[in-house]
Write a structure and sequence with these properties.
Its cofactor is [3Fe-4S] cluster. This is Ferredoxin. By secondary structure, this protein is α+β, with helices and mostly antiparallel strands. The chain has a single domain, classed as Alpha-Beta Plaits, CATH 3.30.70.20. The chain is 23% helix and 17% strand. The protein contains two helices and three strands; from the N terminus they run βαβαβ. It has helices spanning 15-19, 44-53, and strands at residues 2-5, 36-38, 59-62. Strands 2-1-3 form a three-stranded antiparallel β-sheet, with helices on one face. The longest helix is centred in the last third of the chain and has 10 residues, at 44-53.
Length: 64
């Protein structure tokens, strides 16, 4: 499982990182640092929290 973030939709609200700081990283300007993240085992709940928290709907879960 991985997370995909549409970087051009990210407005830098930072709610993903606020809800799951061990998974989502922000750059120096407060935007998502990476477009694709692997979800480590046991962190699916955190990944889903970040998806739900994004007001721009820029984050989605992707199954391999």
């Amino acid at each position: 499982m991985r997370v995909h973030i549409e970087l051009d939709q990210c407005e830098g609200h930072g709610l993903c990182a606020a809800t799951a700081p061990d998974l989502y990283e922000l750059d120096d300007d407060g935007y998502a640092a990476e477009a694709d993240l692997d979800v480590p085992e046991g962190m699916l709940g955190e990944a889903e929290s970040g998806v739900s928290a994004c007001p721009m709907r820029a984050i989605r879960l992707v199954t391999e």
